[in-house]
């Protein structure tokens, strides 16, 4: 989702820009560049995810003046490459999107917060919450983090956007949102379906590609043993790595 800069108050745009800079700095600091250099194939996943998100965003609609709606795909990107690389890759995609669409650059920080930081952070927290012994089943990960995670992101995004419109005194947009609220349910299901389908396919056929899918935890079989020898974590350092479930830990 992208909101034109002229609709928002200057202080909101400033706060969003500061938050985006802080998040990018955190992502750059936490990214394990040496591990990524040791596994250059992972770079293809990051670049491919950014390109896939960009093409998904280009399939957008202008529901009202100044508001661009599109599917996100950040849930899948975060599950595959982790929070840090998802934020960095999606940021590049947002910059390219702004250049292609000819959007006003003052709104870039807000777009990063809504389109990248919110879904990536929600997905990361959700994975942590679902990684419990009582929920030790791959379908919990697929349906919970993938399908439900995508829908939850859309719901939170709609609520935050409504609050932003209210703070900016856009009463007409708030009234329009009240009329178009059934569209949120449709987008929630569609976003959840897209992410759930992608995550299920990757977790089943290419579990080594999915950073946050711990098959030693969910499957505990021969394939997990093979992956434990072959895979490497590539997002953050071992110290302070809170992007992964803490039990059991995976080696970077």
Your description of this structure?
The protein has 252 residues and is mainly alpha-helical. It has a single domain (10-215), classed as Arp2/3 complex 21 kDa subunit ARPC3 (Orthogonal Bundle), CATH 1.10.1760.20. It has helices at 10-30, 33-38, 41-58, 74-81, 83-101, 108-130, 138-167, 171-179, 181-205, 215-218, 222-230, and strands spanning 2-3, 61-64, 67-69. Strands 1-3-2 form a three-stranded antiparallel beta sheet.
Which features would summarize this protein structure in a list?
mainly alpha; single chain; three-stranded antiparallel β-sheet; 252 residues; 11 helices; Arp2/3 complex 21 kDa subunit ARPC3
């Amino acid at each position: 989702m992208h909101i034109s800069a002229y609709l928002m108050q200057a202080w909101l745009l400033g706060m969003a820009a500061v938050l985006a800079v802080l998040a990018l700095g955190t992502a750059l600091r936490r990214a394990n560049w040496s591990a990524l250099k040791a596994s250059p194939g992972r770079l293809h996943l990051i670049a491919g995810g950014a390109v896939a998100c960009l093409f998904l965003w280009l399939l957008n609609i202008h529901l009202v003046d100044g508001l661009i709606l599109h599917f996100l795909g950040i849930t899948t990107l975060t599950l595959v490459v982790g929070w840090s690389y998802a934020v960095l890759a999606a940021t590049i995609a947002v910059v390219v999107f702004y250049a292609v669409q000819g959007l006003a650059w003052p709104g870039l920080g807000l777009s990063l917060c809504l389109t990248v930081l919110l879904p990536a952070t929600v997905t990361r927290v959700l994975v942590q919450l679902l990684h419990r012994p009582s929920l030790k089943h791959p379908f919990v990960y697929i349906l919970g983090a993938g399908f439900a995670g995508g829908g939850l992101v859309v719901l939170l995004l709609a609520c935050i956007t409504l609050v932003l419109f209210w703070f900016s005194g856009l009463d007409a947009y708030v009234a329009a949102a009240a009329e178009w609220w059934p569209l949120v349910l449709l987008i929630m299901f569609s976003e959840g379906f897209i992410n759930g389908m992608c995550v299920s396919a990757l977790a089943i056929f290419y579990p080594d590609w999915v950073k946050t899918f711990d098959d030693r935890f969910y499957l505990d079989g021969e394939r997990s043993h093979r992956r434990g020898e072959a895979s490497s974590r590539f997002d953050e350092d071992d110290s302070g790595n809170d992007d992964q479930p803490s039990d059991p830990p995976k080696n970077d």
